[in-house]
Predict the structure.
Amino acid sequence: MTFLHAPDGALANDLALREQLVREIRTFRPDAVFATDPEALFHGGRGVNHTDHRAAGMAAIDAVYPAARNPMAFPWLARGGLAAQRVRRLYLFWSDRADTWVDVSDTLERKIDALRAHASQITDPDGLADRIRTRAAEAGADIGVAAADALRLIVIDDDDEVDEAEEEDESVG
């Protein structure tokens, strides 16, 4: 895990943040990225999506597409050995437009423990754990499991499109 050390309430989707995110994407080379849905301002009538979360979500989307896959974006990263990376899918959480549900029954407590680790941000860890369990149970009911995460899936590249692009890249190089 990499911490970017931005002050609370001050995160901005700017070039510097996108470069940091592109560096992470090109280093770890994921096929999928999870981020907050930046379009959700008031999520399900249950609260306001924090400004930092909206900025982080939009920055992640901008880093995934087009920056991480574009060798001309941040060329110094490519010269430093971090080749372009095509992320195939975005999974957006805290979305009002969920269209994909993932069974998290076996990993829900691990998720709660990870959230508890952010002690400086959480004033009521037990209340948070209860809310997470309740929301996971509600989402799980939609697909017939004990607990689920409801996500908005954005498919950037179908698998066959990426495989063809990778074959073209290999034949050129």
